[in-house]
Amino acid sequence: MARLRRAKDEEKALIYRWWKGIFAEDDGGHSDYYFEHYYQSKQSYVLVDEKDELISSCQVHTKTLMFNQKPLQVSLIVGVFTLPKYRKQGYMKELLDKVIDIMSYRDTLTLIQAYVPHLYEPYGFKQIYVRNIFWLDVLSLPTVSPLGISYNVSPLELRDLYREFTQHFTGYCVRNEQDFNLLLGEMNAMSGKLVAYQEDGKLLAYAFVYPHGDHLEIDEMVYLNSKALVAILGSLKSTNLPIRLAVSEKEDLRRLFPHADLERQAYTSVRANELRLLNDLYKLSVKDVEGLFMAAEKPLWIRENQ
Fold first, then answer.
1. SS3 249
2. Domain 3-130+266-294, what architecture?
């Protein structure tokens, strides 16, 4: 009979090896950085057999999510995997059921990055966050002056811009200077680069840009005006590569880029653990997590994936 427990410190290398293999297609240097800087045994859950050997595992990170101007402690589940020989035997369900039960007593909401949302609906998750993916032909971008473009910005400056940008949204995770230190380290580990735009010494936009051989990916774009956004994108024109730009569902950039191809990407699903408490906190009477997020006072924004 399988049982759930926290991972032991000495199991880090084992979990890393399986993670590295199972998530190889999405790696790009991420796994090494994650296990060096993010991984903690106390937030690593494992399902084990009667011999105490690994069957399945996931990581649970604690975040502060700002929703309708109130901070919520939430859990974010990442890195769910089952060893190949145990697949299709119900172990992932057993793992998630038990982990979610623990989280339901600790956090108001639990989030999971879910590109295939229906897989997580049996556990009470609903697709909440959707991202717009714009595919931009660099030839259609304006040629811009390099004046104002920068590749070296401090974590403190990034934090301050992020705070100003997210005031236009809700449902975002609160970040501090150390969070940006880690994000910059992760970006470098994945061969990415930071591109920023400044005017009169003030940071107005930044983007995390990742090369993928046949295209560039911008997984986070934070900006205060369209001029700053276009300036960063225009600075990438010399690469002659298409740009995959991910933004929130409500950031409709079609007026700026009318010829861009647009895709919708399911990104994050959410489970309400304490709906009664949330109703009391926000003076609501919603019946499910979808109702809660329909009461959002501003558009939703999130990029957290660990």
1. coil
2. 3-Layer(aba) Sandwich (3.40)
